[in-house]
Amino acid sequence: MVEIPVPQHMTAEEFRRHGRAVVDWIADYWERVESLPVRSRVQPGEVRGQLPSTPPQVGESFDAVLADLDTIVVPGLTHWQHPGFFAYFPTSTSGPAVLAELLTSGLGVQGMLWQTSPACTELEQHVLDWLAEMLALPEKFTFAGTGGGVIQDTASSAILVALVAALHRVSGGQVARDGVARGRYAVYTSTQAHSALEKGVRISGLGTSSIRLIETRPDLSMDPDALREAMKTDAVQGIIPVMVMATVGTTSTGALDPVEPIGRICREYGVWLHVDAAYAGVAAVCPELRWIHQGVAAYADSYATNPHKWMLTAFDCDACYVADRKALVGALSVLPEYLRNTATDSGAVVDYRDWQVPLGRRFRALKLWAVIRCYGVEGLRTHVRHSVALAQQFAAWVAADERFELMAPHPLSLVCFRLRGPDEPNQRLLEALNASGRIYLSHTVVRGAFTLRLAIGGTATRYEHVSAAWDHISRIAAEG
């Protein structure tokens, strides 16, 4: 008889002991993260230089893993949960989200089909219907309507699947069979839009020559008149407009494209309208901020926002909605024999494998469900309102200081500002601020001028942190 080797796994008791240690480590990290430099100070290759050149042949204790976390990993991190992290839009995690992620990993569910874990699919459907209600999105984006929601990893994936669905619709399915004809289609967005659209057109086979970058108005939002002119020019030349991507909260400045007039133009030309609200969309949980979605209900074919940015839900979690689920499923459904099953054949269930690029999928809905339940709608509104109020206070300090100028409207939680005058002092200011380890900012270019960005929304960020950030900026600026 052949001797079959028996693998050695962590026992339940060992898991309990190490699990408690991990939870304690995370809690301790959250309590001490403010004392760490926000941006990592390691040099390129420094982290790898501390790692063994070959993997261990014999398993080590998990205690050794935790020890190396402190000595090797943490010094090599930029701390996104630091209250002085203002560089990019936040990835604001929270206790409920982290605990739910642990449950997700422990359950080890693969939710590609309804049949492979019904609760994984149905909880996701339900929690995204909840979120649609919380953001006052239209019924067409829910499973009570003609569409529905799906959790993608990021807004980049939402843009890609929206584009593929738009191509499927405009071509009557021909693109899925025959591919994309060179020079036949065009896609439109503003000069301020996220670069994810460019990556999407590359992946889809359209190519970057299909993109039409539309100029903006003084407030940096897309100019509808310029959009109409671009579509008209393409139509005359026999080029088919496929999709317009309007942005609600651009990465660079937080600009808000006018969805309603853009939507009317899309309706006129039969063009798919995708609304990328990755950063700003969750602000609509507050009734007084729902104006940012004007036109979405009437005109959007798809919509996406990221709870992992400003809604306390651990990365990654993008809520992607479509008004017509048939277009999306028609574009992405491939059903080999080994995936066939009675539930799918009945047509009574949703198989989320048809709503995304990969086949496999994690149980991401569990953490969003936990966050909504533990904070409640009012708790999430408080978080958003707190961030907006802090940003308005920071902007007021900037406006009151004659050395500085505000560079863009700031209705939400992003403030773009700079020292008046040439770019070089602003570049030196940013470098000095980030080298200090106390705060971390990023930059953009607004109307040709080097501009600093301060984005608020982190879980731990409070008034005292924003006040300290302004004091630090003011002092470093004075030192030149």
TrEMBL record:
Cofactor(s) recorded in Swiss-Prot or TrEMBL: pyridoxal 5'-phosphate
Keywords: Aminotransferase, Decarboxylase, Lyase, Pyridoxal phosphate, Transferase
Molecular function per GO: transaminase activity
InterPro entries to which the protein is assigned, alphabetical: Aromatic_deC (IPR010977), PyrdxlP-dep_de-COase (IPR002129), PyrdxlP-dep_Trfase (IPR015424), PyrdxlP-dep_Trfase_major (IPR015421), PyrdxlP-dep_Trfase_small (IPR015422)
Similarity annotation: Belongs to the group II decarboxylase family.
Protein name stated in the entry: Aminotransferase class V-fold PLP-dependent enzyme
UniProt lineage: Bacteria, Bacillati, Actinomycetota, Actinomycetes, Mycobacteriales
